[in-house]
Design brief:
The protein is α+β, with helices and mostly antiparallel strands. The chain has 20 helices and 23 strands. About 40% of the residues are buried. It is found in: Cytoplasm.
């Protein structure tokens, strides 16, 4: 119970009905992440009061709203006050004490509960107001910017007005007041460091950011008392599709995405059932000016009852961060922090539903044979980001894989994993791929020679994430994904097309190379997977493929695998010449190092000793010139 002291005949002083010091400190310093949130909360309360009066006027004409009902925000630089006024339902003396005098008690919540218990005859479901506040702490966010808060309110249908005032230090006063019409005025005596909220442009920015789609008109009073509209007042996503033009969709897309193109896809739907929400999402038609790799968080905006809450609710996973738009629900409380939102079960369900909706849209478009050119434009823009989902999202991997497109050694343009599998040779064991820094370099890689000789297709990967995701996917349609650098044993089982000649012996050369390179390679062996090249590197089979090893090495990280294998082509003139030298007992240590560096360069790596390699090549060229002379 609140304790009451009579200060004089007209003013009553009350103690707050809770541990106000601790709770106000929580509201001011912990519950809200942004100081400007106070304006959102007070505007939300005003909107609720207006909605409540509109609803109750359905059964009581005496409570009808004025024709010009609005929320009015009036800064006064001379007095250093900010006033938020509405023409809503207003509060009686008892309401002020009950709703503002007890922390975490909400009149809105009580009314919402009563409304939910009402029988159909008492109010049509279609006309029920959308009430925003739920926990009753939003009002106290005013103390983040104000030393003192004064609330003057007159309940609709009565002639009495009352004034509530407090400095937030443990008590409040209530006294009789005057107000011409029903509604509420909240006057904030701003702190010295809150002067920015006396500037009209700053108030306009906050309203547009946090409350642009509240249905009640919001105006800001500028110089000479001129009122300027601050919100659009229309939640586009809550309208039916038939009410919205293409131009309105495009305009809203540009607003939420900060892009200037047209959306590649527009997703607008209403989810109903145990969990209800509206979604209006857009897939951009072009890459944004700022690379999507720069900020890996999804920025889809979360609204509650049309009120913007945050764009950091992670409504979509990081690998769909290129999607822009709004999700609005009535099933979440407004007055909670971002941290509290993360653990809300309802939000988890919304995330799952929204992600499924986007994936289904992409899947349908990827399967539309008549519009593959359009889908390829999307994939060229955002394919690398989609691939991150294979690496990060275990649950969705099987849904993401069919959305991917690839370059290939045997196909013009793009292909899919499913199409690759349909073209596999009967005896082929896996889906083979090569990762390189760019597609053109990949096409020329010696790693492909053996596959080309056997007519085996290889996918060419060159995106920044391609070194990571194939191992995470593992299989597609029961076929393993395997890097060509780890496929020497596979090729040995396939005979090259038109290859009948015996492989020359090179045992002494292999032994000499092993001895010379024992600190740099795990093994040296001959191979029949090379046609035009003398050497190639292969993975030892004990760890990631060679491209991943290079990336980890550049990042200064160990990878736990063995050193690479050096494979030599015994049919190549260079190898045959070195083999003859080894048979003659010559020292080939220096040539062995040059041979390994050649293999490294072919794979996009650098020589172990660039200066030494340059000297060796120069010496070899000089010897060639001398011999020719």
């Amino acid at each position: 119970m609140s304790e009451t002291d009579t200060v004089n005949a007209n003013v009553e002083r009350h103690e707050f009905g809770a541990e106000v010091g601790r709770l106000l400190d929580l509201v001011v310093h912990a519950l809200y992440s942004d100081r400007e949130i106070f304006l959102r909360e007070l505007v939300a309360n005003a909107a609720d009061a207006t909605d409540r009066r509109r609803f109750e006027a359905l059964t009581n004409e005496a409570l009808a709203l004025p024709a010009d009902a609005k929320i009015r925000i009036a800064p006064d630089k001379d007095a250093k006050t900010l006033t938020i006024s509405d023409s809503g339902i207003g509060m009686s003396k008892e309401d002020l004490a009950k709703n503002l005098g007890t922390i975490a008690r909400s009149g809105t919540r009580a009314f919402s509960q009563a409304l939910g218990d009402a029988k159909p005859a008492e109010g049509s479901e279609d006309n029920r107001p959308s009430l925003i506040g739920q926990f009753g702490v939003g009002f106290y966010s005013a103390f983040m910017v104000a030393d003192r808060v004064t609330v003057t309110s007159r309940q609709a249908g009565t002639d009495e007005a009352w004034r509530w005032a407090s400095d937030g230090q443990g008590s409040y006063t209530i006294e009789k007041a005057e107000r011409d019409q029903a509604g509420t005025d909240i006057v904030l005596a701003l702190k010295d460091d809150a002067g920015e909220y006396l500037e009209s442009y700053r108030l306009d920015h906050v309203v547009k950011k946090w409350a642009d789609n509240i249905a009640v008109p919001i105006v800001i009073v500028g110089e000479e008392g001129k009122e300027e509209a601050a919100n659009q007042g229309t939640a586009l996503w809550r309208k039916s599709k038939s009410e919205i033009t293409d131009e309105q969709y495009k305009e809203f897309y540009r607003t939420v995405s900060h892009n200037f193109d047209e959306p590649w896809a527009t997703l607008h739907w209403r989810a109903e059932g145990a969990l209800e929400f509206s979604g209006l999402l857009f897939v951009p038609g072009m890459k944004p000016f700022m690379p999507v790799e720069d900020d890996r968080r999804s920025k889809v905006r979360l609204h509650v009852r049309r009120m913007f809450i945050t764009d950091e609710a992670e409504l979509l996973p990081n690998w769909l961060r290129f999607v822009a738009g709004v999700v609005d629900t009535d099933d979440l409380p407004l007055n909670v922090s971002r941290e509290m939102l993360q653990s809300t079960p309802a939000l988890q369900k919304i995330r799952r539903a929204v992600t499924t909706r986007v994936i289904n849209e992409l899947s349908n478009r990827s399967k539309n044979a008549e519009k593959q050119d359009e889908y390829l434009k999307f994939f060229e823009n955002f394919g690398p980001v989609l691939k991150e989902g294979i690496y990060e999202d275990f649950e969705r991997r099987s849904e993401i894989a069919p959305l991917l497109r690839f370059r290939s050694t045997t196909q013009e343009g793009w292909t899919t994993l499913a199409d690759y599998v349909s073209r596999m040779k009967p005896e082929q064991e896996a889906i083979y791929y090569l990762v390189a820094d760019d597609a053109e370099a990949a096409k020329k890689s010696p790693q492909l020679e053996g596959f080309a000789a056997r007519g085996v297709e290889v996918l060419l990967l060159s995106d920044h994430v391609d070194a990571f995701w194939p191992e995470q996917l593992g299989k597609f349609e029961e076929k393993n994904l395997r890097s060509v650098t780890q496929a020497s044993a596979d090729l040995a089982k396939l005979k090259p097309e038109g290859e009948d000649a015996d492989t020359p012996e090179a045992d002494k050369l292999v032994a000499a190379l092993k001895l010379a390179l024992e600190k740099d390679v795990s093994e040296v062996r001959t191979t029949d997977r090379l046609v035009d090249s003398a050497v190639v590197l292969a993975s030892s089979g004990m760890g990631p493929d060679l491209q991943m090893q290079r990336l980890m090495r550049r990042a200064g990280r160990g990878f736990g695998g063995g050193m690479p294998v050096l494979e030599i082509n015994p049919r190549h003139p260079l190898i045959q010449a070195l083999s003859a030298r080894a048979e003659a007992g010559e020292d080939i240590t220096e040539s062995a190092g040059t041979l390994l560096d050649l293999a490294r360069i072919q794979d996009g790596d650098t020589p172990r000793d660039p200066i030494g390699f340059a000297r060796a090549v120069a010496a070899a060229l000089a010897g060639t010139e001398k011999a020719a002379g």
